[in-house]
């Protein structure tokens, strides 16, 4: 039992539900933290959340009524899209545009792969009807809406027994009048319970992306709404009295009502939690450039953080489908602990992207896995012992070694050399992913620190920092539950966007009225308008003729606005064009309310001197070495460990290579550097 101080003190909890495990973080006064993992319940994910809440509070001897903050991140929306287990959705679009989702960009997803196919749209063609109407790109009505013909056409959808209908009309972002009227008519027809206008989900140009985003939102909405309702009911029955907040892809928090209405904003919530945590930790550590590096069982999620702010994107993908909503800019690669090793047609060793997943999992997990994975390689080399999660999970290392030996015979290598080869290959794959978010954006990795977390991140952090010549690898206090811990201090956030057409000084100044309108809407959406609120005014700018924009701060002075844009253009693309004409196409308002950050738990009182609790044979560079095994819970503020060594903790294992040294700081962040 971990006792946390009683009544009156803040008590915060975050629960992050993944496909395999549900992670729980509980924070009390003084930053005292308790973390816990339990198996997820994919068929009823709310059950694991409720069990996690009850179990974690029992372990810290506190009651549900004492919770003062509850944050939840979930993969329910993500998995619904990936598994194609969502709602039956129909659509109404402008006459002549019935195939907007099927045609997409008219580009093959992989130009040199004749077998690669674009994902099927979430809305079947037979569930799409057309409305006679047309609005041009300036918002002018070219053809009036034929309401009588629409009412007749709607009845074609009745036999399909649809759950939701999306209304997405061409150029509605410029003038949503027809789209809103069609939505009213479809609602009155009663052919589906949920009807939504695409402009209420994403009111920006680019019809395919806007329609795809609305389709994703409608596809996951019934399941998310039901899930949130069940979860709120379960929390109430459990005695939780504080309001729940839902993590969204942008790194901010939504109310349950907003999340149920705009569930597409939660598609990347699990990824965002860890990035938000890494951003807050980088600020605390006064690091200007950090690469957030989160390794799970199937994938690695990588993000760049500059001056405490994660890079963001306004357009991403989920299962190959465009999603035009703000999100942290995470680059995901198919490289994780469960990534499977295989040989290509030329006999070369490859690792991933396919994974053993949670079932059957790596060979060492004893769940029926038969193919060697990255986790098995760590086990064979001795980096992992024969148990995880503080002894709650056993590993069958001999089985992994036997399989590695048999598989390695095809390569003419021993089991150990095969395992080292697997790790070298996966290190190269992960290094490419890190370069994707740094070097390809003009950032010198020699000026960056690597924040490594996730269950497997600390096993690879030291190797990658050395491989890429980064300043250091940093392991946060509880890396295996970092996403849940990171969510605890995420801000409340709302995003608004309005399409505009600005290319003159007068029009730029007039944007003040546009921002004022969005601010009025934002103030009405805030649960607590009296709280301290930050309003960030942004614009999407480009040179006329360009296809894509850069989001920069708004300034009502045209000269200054152009300077801001061209500085960003040069930083991103390496040049600016003083002769080109600049235009602004979208005005954005980001509204945030920061929650009071909890304290970080200090280890100042713990003695800096540590001794290994055991030793283990670990295979390094072709030879077995006897390495000391340390327990991280023994580390104090000035603890120093020289490599090679293994550092174990409940939720992860840290590998420290030769010629490396690890220093612990006051708040239990472990800094790994090359020895000097």
From TrEMBL:
Residues 535-674 form the Acetophenone carboxylase-like C-terminal domain. It comes from Yaniella flava. It comes from the Bacteria. Residues 210-495 form the Hydantoinase A/oxoprolinase domain. This is Hydantoinase/oxoprolinase family protein. InterPro entries: ACX-like_C (IPR049517), ATPase_NBD (IPR043129), Hydant_A_N (IPR008040), Hydantoinase_A (IPR002821), Oxoprolinase-like (IPR045079). Residues 13-188 form the Hydantoinase/oxoprolinase N-terminal domain. Signal peptide: none annotated.
């Amino acid at each position: 039992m971990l006792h946390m101080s009683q009544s009156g003190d803040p008590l915060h909890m975050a629960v992050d539900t993944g496909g395999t495990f549900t992670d729980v973080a509980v924070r009390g006064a003084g930053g005292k933290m308790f973390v816990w993992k339990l198996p997820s319940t994919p068929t009823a994910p709310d059950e694991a959340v409720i069990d996690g809440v009850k179990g974690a509070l029992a372990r810290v001897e506190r009651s549900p009524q004492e919770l003062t903050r509850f944050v939840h991140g979930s993969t329910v929306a993500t998995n619904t899209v990936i598994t194609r287990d969502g709602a039956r959705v129909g659509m109404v679009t402008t006459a002549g545009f019935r195939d907007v989702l099927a045609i997409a960009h008219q580009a093959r997803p992989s130009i040199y792969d004749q077998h690669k196919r674009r994902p099927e749209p979430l809305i079947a063609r037979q569930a799409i009807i057309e409305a006679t109407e047309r609005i041009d790109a300036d918002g002018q009505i070219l053809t009036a809406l034929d309401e009588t013909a629409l009412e007749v056409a709607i009845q074609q959808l009745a036999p399909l027994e649809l759950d939701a209908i999306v209304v997405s009309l061409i150029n509605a972002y410029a003038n949503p009048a027809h789209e809103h009227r069609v939505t009213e008519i479809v609602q009155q027809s009663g052919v589906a319970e949920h009807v939504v206008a695409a402009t209420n989900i994403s009111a920006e140009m680019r019809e395919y992306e806007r329609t795809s985003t609305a389709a994703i939102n409608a596809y996951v909405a019934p399941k998310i709404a039901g899930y949130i309702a069940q979860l709120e009911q379960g929390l109430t029955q459990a005695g939780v009295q504080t309001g729940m907040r839902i993590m969204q892809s942008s790194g901010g928090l939504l109310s349950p009502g907003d999340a149920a209405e705009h569930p597409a904003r939660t598609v990347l919530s699990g990824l965002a939690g860890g990035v938000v945590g890494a951003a807050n930790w980088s600020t605390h550590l006064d690091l200007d450039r950090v690469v957030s590096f989160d390794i799970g069982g199937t994938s690695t999620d990588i993000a760049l953080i500059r001056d405490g702010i994660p890079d963001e994107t306004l357009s991403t993908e989920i299962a190959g489908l465009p999603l035009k909503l703000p999100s942290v800019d995470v680059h995901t690669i198919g490289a994780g602990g469960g990534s499977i090793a295989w040989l290509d047609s030329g006999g070369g060793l490859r690792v991933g992207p396919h994974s053993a997943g949670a079932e059957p999992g790596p060979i060492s997990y004893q769940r029926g896995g038969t193919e060697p994975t990255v986790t098995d390689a760590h086990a064979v080399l001795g980096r992992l012992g024969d148990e995880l999660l503080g002894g709650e999970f056993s590993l069958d290392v001999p089985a992994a070694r036997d399989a590695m030996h048999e598989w390695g015979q095809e390569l003419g290598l021993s089991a150990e050399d095969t395992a080292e080869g697997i790790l070298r290959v996966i290190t190269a794959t992960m290094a490419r992913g890190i370069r994707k978010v740094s070097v390809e954006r003009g950032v010198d990795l020699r000026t960056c620190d690597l924040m490594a977390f996730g269950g497997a991140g600390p096993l690879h952090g030291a190797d990658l920092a050395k491989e890429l010549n980064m300043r250091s690898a940093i392991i946060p206090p509880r890396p295996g539950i970092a996403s849940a811990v990171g969510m605890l201090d995420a801000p409340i956030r709302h995003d608004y966007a309005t399409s505009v057409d600005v290319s003159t000084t007068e029009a730029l100044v007039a944007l003040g009225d546009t921002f004022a309108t969005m601010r009025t809407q934002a103030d009405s959406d805030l649960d607590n308008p009296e709280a301290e609120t930050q309003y960030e005014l942004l614009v999407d700018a480009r040179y006329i003729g360009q296809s894509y924009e850069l989001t920069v701060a708004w300034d009502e002075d045209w000269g200054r606005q152009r300077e801001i844009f061209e500085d960003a253009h040069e930083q991103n693309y390496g040049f600016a064009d003083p002769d080109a004409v600049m235009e602004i196409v979208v005005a954005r308002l980001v509204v945030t309310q920061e929650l009071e950050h909890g304290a970080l738990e200090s280890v100042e009182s713990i003695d800096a001197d540590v001794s290994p609790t055991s030793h283990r044979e670990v295979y390094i560079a072709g030879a077995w070495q006897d390495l000391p095994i340390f327990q991280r819970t023994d580390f104090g503020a000035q603890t120093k460990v020289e490599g090679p060594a293994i550092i174990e903790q409940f939720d992860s294992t840290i590998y420290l290579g030769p010629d490396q040294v690890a220093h612990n700081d006051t708040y239990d962040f472990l800094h790994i550097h090359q020895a000097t």
